Amino acid sequence: MDFPAELKRLVARVELGLDQLVPAATTRPARLHEAMRYSLQAGGKRLRPVLVLAAHELHAAARMRNPGSAPREPRVPDPLPAAVAVECLHTYSLIHDDLPCMDNDDLRRGRPTAHRQFDEATALLAGDALLTHAFALLAEAYAPDPALAHALIRELAEAAGSRRLIGGQMADLLAEKQARATDDDLEFIHLNKTAAMIEAALVMGGLTGGADAPSLATLRRIGRHLGLAFQIVDDILDATADSATLGKTAGKDAKADKTTFVKLHGLADSRRLAREHSDTARATIADLPGDREFLLALVDSMAARSN
Ligand code: GRG
To answer: Residue 77 in contact with residue 145, Cβ under 8 Å?
Structure first.
């Protein structure tokens, strides 16, 4: 398998989906839709939507080889709307995270943040609209298969809600400058702020691809470890890389005295922990059916990433 070419193929599919499945910039009121597209189209690694597509392809291919396992549903649903919904939700969280009342950041995905490019109210509303659009898209695109639509909406709502993404963000804000934040606080923050969406992306791809319950549980476990590894690497990069490479302001964690892996464990131990979580994700991928090569290479590329 040619990993860079395969990644490029999936990212191109995501970019096309984002363009087709999000209202045009000219939609009234144009300023709002321009702001939504500005943040979505600023780039980004597209990790989460690529995970949706990769988990889907792996299971859909395994199911095609063994059609007897799903006798009542010969047509495999399109995973692209689910991938786009996940990226809309992720982008909303970045827009809101950058707002003055949260991280107050000027740079995201190598460009001025939405509130810098537009204004605070427009950025807030663009985030709200992307969040809402994610669920509208799932409801609309998967309407012909109500059980699938329900499962996807429930998965994304759980991952993005007050017990996971938003709860993780709240705990992160509460832990800022707390001298006594513990490993348990750190795990809560990162399992929810970061790993929840990565888990959901894999599970949603599994759902559209027709994964069975054991495979969905395996995908969730992979997402948990990949998410933790991803966040530890994020903390290391914040402490060691520069803003131009990251496309966002570097060194912010130390400045805000955030509770991070690097603050609690130092750089060497953080690197070891990231490796351990990546290794567990890799080992768990072995429990999935079908061709796992792309997912394994993706875990490696996330561990070795520079932005
Ligand atoms: C505002 C509800 C709400 C949540 C915000 C996403 C987030 C939670 C905060 C952003 C800061 C941060 C370090 C989050 C952890 C997850 C993370 C590393 C996000 C950045 O994801 P990337 O690197 O970004 O995949 P791109 O731009 O490549 O998509």
So the answer is: yes
Ligand 1 centroid, distance to 66 Cα (angstroms) = 38
Q: 3-60+75-306 — its CATH code?
A: 1.10.600.10
- Centre of ligand 1 to C-alpha 287, Å, is 28
Do residues 85 and 156 make contact, with C-beta atoms less than 8 angstroms apart? Answer: yes
Q: Where are the domains of the chain?
A: 3-60+75-306
What pTM value is reported for the model? 0.94
State whether the beta carbon of 252 lies less than 6 angstroms from ligand 1. no
Q: Which pLDDT tens digits describe the chain residue by residue (307 residues)? A: 899 999 999 999 999 999 999 999 999 999 999 999 999 998 899 999 999 999 999 999 877 777 665 555 568 999 999 999 999 999 999 999 999 999 999 999 889 999 999 999 999 999 999 999 999 999 999 999 999 999 999 999 999 999 999 999 999 999 887 778 888 999 999 999 999 999 999 999 999 999 999 999 999 999 999 999 999 999 999 999 888 888 888 888 888 788 888 988 899 999 999 999 999 999 999 999 989 999 999 999 999 987 7
Residue among 202, 204, 261 nearest 226 (CA)? 202
Closest ligand 1 atom, residue 193 Cα:
8
Cβ atoms of residues 307 and 238 within 8 Å: no
